[in-house]
Amino acid sequence: MSQNPFFIGQPVPPKHFVGRKADIATAFDQIYHRSNLAVWGSSGMGKSSLLEQLISPEVWEQKGQDISKAVIVLFSCLSISPFSSTSFWQEVLSLLRDEVDNDSTLQAQIDKFLEQGQATKDSLRRILRQLGKQGKFLLLLVDDYDAALVPNGQYTETDIENFLNECRNLAYHCRERQYLSMIVTSSRRLSEIGPPLKPGGSPWYNHYLFEQLKPFTDAEMKALLGSTMTPGLQKGVREIASGNPALLQIAGYLLYQGAKSGVGAKHLGDNSSVEPKVYSPNASPSGSLEVPETFAKDFESAARHYFQDIWSFSNELEQTLLILIALSNLKGRLHNQRYDLSGIEIIFSQKERELTYLEERGVINCTVEEGKKRYSFTSSIMERWVVQELSNSDDASLEKRKKVLLNLIIFLVTTASSQQI
Ligand SMILES: Nc1ncnc2c1ncn2[C@@H]1O[C@H](COP(=O)(O)OP(=O)(O)O)[C@@H](O)[C@H]1O
Ligand SMILES: [Mg+2]
Fold this sequence. Notes:
Elements: H1 21-32, E1 36-40, H2 47-54, H3 57-62, E2 70-76, H4 85-99, H5 104-115, H6 121-133, E3 137-143, H7 157-173, E4 180-186, H8 190-193, E5 208-212, H9 218-225, H10 231-241, H11 245-261, H12 263-267, H13 293-312, H14 316-329, E6 333-334, E7 337-338, H15 344-350, H16 352-360, E8 364-369, E9 372-377, H17 380-392, H18 395-420
Parallel strand pairs: 1-4, 1-5, 2-3, 3-4
Antiparallel strand pairs: 6-7, 8-9
Bound molecules: adenosine-5'-diphosphate and magnesium ion.
Residues 47-48, 143 line the site of magnesium ion.
């Protein structure tokens, strides 16, 4: 039997990487100019996979760039636990040392820094100068940069500011910046998760070009699913998985697996024998796949940690808006209780900025019906998950949520009365 062509649980290998042409072109422009890039996007949107692309010699060749000039270091800040700036510079220097294994002089210099406890940005600056003399540069690919922006027991808010200033100094102010290109990834825009800019303070993120990894376009989805699925099934998968590549891969994986073992026949509502490579489900009246409960459950369980991540990277207000969207689509009915959701449009109209941001991140969709904006989840299963989370919440978290809702209502009342004045 043929191998499952879908990937779960790891960045997709370059051979199976789909789309993202513009993002890759942007990354190579920045690399070419020895400039910096901050890529951001929800969990599962493909940040780590994109970085894997940037270390592939074939991709460099396709882009007409000379990989032999680059010394590439790739790591995730999540691998440094607990995070500290010293451990960060240590990690950069150690990995860089491994990459220059044909240069014993440079290796000896790095060893000296590491042994003498001098793993600092200034040591790296000296190494950059050496690389520059050899006509080379460092491509520093730092995944999950969020971890560098949250304090821990040994890493205070001040340490964060100092660390970010060190990075800016290296990548923007010092002469050796011409031998460095830094690409970082994070779940949200850096300006939202890092320390706010202080008047007169250094703008710690202004040297990055920002690039958001958006949900897959229709063409990208077709490229991923088209060789194994009929158009009807692709449409059905899109409804449950939205354009999030990780969710699409999970749905594809489960369907392929199911079709191979025969369970797919049940998933697809088709009792005939299933050809392992091409799915042909019974289409619903809308032309898309009706997802049976068994498949929905398997999918939800495999995708749960992505939903959890998207949820926990949302702030309290965004979470509350997501709950309101889920409830409004249930027409206020949840576990035999009815919630009065009249006036919800007013809340939505006052919070358009947050809703647009959720839309940009691919979590929700906005459509206009009879002149009114209607919000819905891009993944119907995520919507279901949110409702379940709500009904499983303990009293303390429900109380916390009520407070956010109350604040929203107070905000509305205040805005309404100030408009009357
Ligand atoms: N461009 C892509 N082509 C195909 N699959 C992708 C692509 N980007 C991501 N994926 C899929 O999504 C999953 C999550 O990708 P990953 O790079 O780990 O996302 P992130 O780092 O943003 O959380 C991968 O396991 C892979 O299956
Ligand atoms: Mg990742």
